[in-house]
Design a protein that fits this description.
heterodimer; A: 174 residues; 3 helices; B: 172 residues
């Protein structure tokens, strides 16, 4: 046989191993692994048919049965979840920002209210203090005037509490 | 790149192809049958057509044919069974392949069946099909060293079985 034989590029060690294994398997080591086959008309016809088929296939134009699918639906399908996620994140962020702004405005309003109340309280306290001062002054003025008009007389000591070094005398004018 | 003309084949000229086809076709059919192919003849013929229509030359045409037959047989079975096929299931069809029946005695066939399917396949390709270590590596898509290891382990197991059962008549 003229077509490339397997054993041509085999080492002698491999060939010996094959012979040994053939013996172990009960095969005749002298019988070649690939005996030359007879070329029957049927085999020749089949071989020719296959050869022509291979030539026909080799020269046949490659017909693409399906059109190449556009890429954009795939990209859209791949990008849609990402876009949805980003959009959702944006909406959530804007809602959070609106909440934060409302809270900040409420805090500012409360702060201003507190300052206003503190101012009112301070003014009221100052007014109370001033009134108290006026009242004190008025009281002290009234006390001075009353003191000037009064005649302070010494108390007559009682008989029972008469000191020893004093003597009770009768008033001749009475 | 120069396109191959119609008279050149991977085996040489047309006459060489005819001879190679006559030699290899029955073996490839038997090899497809070993894998449980439903249409082994179709698979072997398709392998030849695939090889012949290739633009790039093939280093080992016989190995390419065996590898293509193996792949086509496995892919033919897979959708029909609709299940994950193990090599053990593939290599153990309902009845022994005809080539084994013709070539090997019943005792040796029994011993071969006790071997691991991976060892058995490498052994079959090396001894019965007469393929080289490199070709078997190409067919099974494994390194040459792995092929050698499998063959040597198969040999050791066969020798051990021979010693325990005293099968001297096999050697004779």
């Amino acid at each position: 046989m003229s077509w490339p034989e397997t054993a041509c590029d085999e080492s002698s060690a491999d060939q010996e191993l094959r012979m040994e294994l053939k013996g172990l398997m009960g095969l005749d080591p002298e019988v070649p692994a690939r005996p030359k086959a007879q070329l029957s008309p049927e085999i020749l016809a089949l071989a020719e048919e296959l050869r022509r088929e291979s030539v026909r296939r080799r020269h046949a134009p490659i017909i693409k049965l399906a059109k190449p699918r556009p890429v954009w639906p795939m990209l859209l399908a791949a990008g849609l979840p990402v876009a949805l996620a980003l959009g959702g994140l944006g909406v959530w962020g804007s809602v959070q920002k609106r909440k934060a702004d409302t809270l900040a405005a409420a805090v500012r309003e409360k702060d201003a209210e507190m300052q206003r109340l503190a101012k009112i309280t301070a003014e009221a306290a100052a007014q109370v203090k001033a009134t108290q001062n006026e009242l004190v002054l008025a009281r002290s003025g009234a006390k001075g005037a009353q003191k000037a008009r009064e005649l302070v007389l010494p108390l007559q000591p009682s008989a029972s509490r008469q000191p020893l070094d004093t003597q009770t005398v009768s008033n001749p004018s009475r | 790149m120069q396109a191959p003309d119609n008279t050149t084949t991977p085996f040489g000229d047309v006459a060489d192809f005819h001879q190679a086809f006559a030699d290899l076709y029955p073996r490839l059919v038997a090899y497809a049958r070993r894998y449980g192919a439903t249409y082994p003849e179709d698979i072997a013929q398709e392998a030849f057509v695939i090889l012949m229509q290739r633009e790039e030359p093939v280093d080992h045409p016989a190995a390419f044919l065996y590898g293509t037959v193996r792949t086509l047989s496995l892919t033919e079975r897979r959708p029909m069974k609709n299940q994950n096929l193990s090599l053990e299931a593939v290599m153990e069809p309902g009845r022994p392949p005809e080539a084994e029946e013709l070539l090997l005695s019943r005792e040796v066939r029994e011993r071969m069946r006790t071997l691991s399917p991976t060892f058995r396949e490498a052994l079959w390709l090396f001894v019965v099909e007469g393929l080289s270590i490199r070709e078997i590596g190409e067919i099974l898509e494994i390194p040459d060293a792995t092929v050698k290891t499998r063959i040597h382990r198969a040999k050791a197991q066969l020798r051990e079985q021979l010693n325990t059962s005293g099968g001297a008549h096999v050697l004779a």
